[in-house]
Amino acid sequence: MGSVHSMTSSDAVAIVVVNYGSHELLEANLLKVARGTPEAYVVVVDNFSSQQEREAVLKQAEQFGWETVLPSSNLGFGAGMNLGVEKAQALGATSFLLLNPDASLDADSFNALRKQVSAQPRNLVSPTVIRPDGSVWFAGVDLDLDSGTMRSWRKRNPADGRRTEPWLSGACLMVGLELWQELGGFTPDYFLYWEDVDLSHRTRLAGGDVVVLAGATAVHDEGGTHEVQTRSKAGHGKSYTYYYYNLRNRLLFAAQHLDEKDVRRWMRTSAAAARGVLLQGGRRQFLRPVQPLLAAIRGTRDGLRIARVELKRRSSPEATSVPPESRAERL
Hints:
With about 325 residues, the protein is an alpha/beta fold.
């Protein structure tokens, strides 16, 4: 059963999903979205996890008329999405819904996001993302530039004097071709986590904005791919990958985008940041603390190394002639 693509080339849309070991969620969530929006191309990037998973994804793609991109290894979220959008663009799509396998949305919300991007092509647009029980999972988050921590838009307090900037989750995000091409897609250095913070930051630097569209809603299945990718084998807390990349990439972001004073401030608060990230996995995990602590130590260590290399580069005579946006290519 293939999709029906009746839109003109100037307004064709694609749904792009990066899969890693979660083909069951594609059938539970992506299929529902695709059937509600038959005009959309569907591109699944299967970051390789096993031959059995690859064969399952190929079977789904043949059955449901989905396009595939099949890396021979796990490229990470950002690099995978970049390949998926490239494939969708080759098919003729000019706007792209970037969607996690554990997320879904109805046709009305999909079309509202697409229309918003068409009207404001320099903006990234997200729906409110809720859990299956109706509670809010994501409705916009601010990055605190003074501390490198996060807080919900609902907790904004202009009177507190904190420097913040908004960002959107890559779990469900609509973007147009013009902006995507200008930004060059996701920065692949991040592999997993913080690539959406980076994309949001670069969107605003380019003169765009990040928008949570009122009335558009997606549902995030917390028992889905988030569980597969972030829970530890012991069943306690989150995975090594979750802790490692959250802490490493916090300092990678600082090195790529912040001034020297802020980079040093984020470096000094690395221990507090590690504690905060570890606590997201709950206290029960500390019954078996070796893997979480090892991941936090290594992620912080590697992030600090990246930050030190960048600070050293900036102090060199050649650094004065290198624009800030070139920093990512040197890390």
